[in-house]
Amino acid sequence: NAGVTQTPKFQVLKTGQSMTLQCAQDMNHEYMSWYRQDPGMGLRLIHYSVGAGITDQGEVPNGYNVSRSTTEDFPLRLLSAAPSQTSVYFCASGNSGGQQETQYFGPGTRLLVL
Amino acid sequence: GNSVTQMEGPVTLSEEAFLTINCTYTATGYPSLFWYVQYPGEGLQLLLKATKADDKGSNKGFEATYRKETTSFHLEKGSVQVSDSAVYFCALSGKYKLSFGAGTTVTVRA
To answer: What is the average pLDDT value for chain B, to the nearest integer?
Structure first.
């Protein structure tokens, strides 16, 4: 199993550009999520999904869109990038998102918005 | 709401030293508690977890005990190695999300 994979590993954008961060998992997990990691702030939840066709907002959803058309994939879209979105983005998955279960994280995408 | 307060770093130690990273939390209900580790250039991976009060999680020589009375989940290791150099995150589970502490960078010198 590859686990959770993310592409690209690194991306530079100009303000106002759009892009999609890709995330895929091969563990047949129903739950997937996106976090951003900023210095001194830990990881903060952007959006999550509890199954195909079902998504919901986390604590910092503004400026990001998601959709979940398949169990395996959960892309994150930046519609109009801003310098405040410079961060490291992690995708994670789990069986159901339940409180006792372990989340599995991808290797991250480092995004720089100029 | 749920929150995690974690000891600030960075922490620099010599090999074979004792490591403690403090973590306290505020939560409603009965969350599970986790320590995740991020090695340089990698994503987060689970180090250990505890799902109820007085549970002790352990892995790779690291231990942490879920203390409800002090709302704490401190991470300890008796003898660190250079390979333990990483960023350590304390986290607690809520409904469909993890709440993370700010992370503690640990550097172990040979």
So the answer is: 94
